[in-house]
Amino acid sequence: MDHFAAAADISGRADLDVVLRRFYTAAFADARIGPFFTEIAGTDLEVHLPRITDFWERALFRGTDYRRNAFAPHAALNSVRAMTAADFGRWVQLWHATVDGLHRGPNAERAKAQGERIALTLHKRLAGGDASMAGEDGIGFIPLAALELRSAAMA
Hints:
Elements: H1 13-29, H2 34-40, H3 45-61, H4 71-80, H5 85-102, H6 106-127, H7 144-154
């Protein structure tokens, strides 16, 4: 896809497959969150991808193939190494960048918003209800949309 061409919206499973492959390639290589996938979970992308595509197909298009407990694997990872607000924030940054790099439209916007909601919900559940959105280094989960608004206001 030409970087400067108008990007089409996410229209179905084939588009989700491309988005998710690109996202997980970046996430696996990321210094902050990559170890959750590569070292702790030992994620095999070819096994994981159809399941997570089912999840996103259901989230965006009301598909019914995903019938798993999405919380359980995250809880298992968290029991080995706690996931911080900054970890979830990095996930959201990569998710937004991936979606924005490939698609524009209502489904793309819904995918980004859903990603933020999922990250916030998982973080709150894993941290036990009184989750601080600030990480150990003072950097917390800041939705990318808020950063974009802040940047626009400063311009």
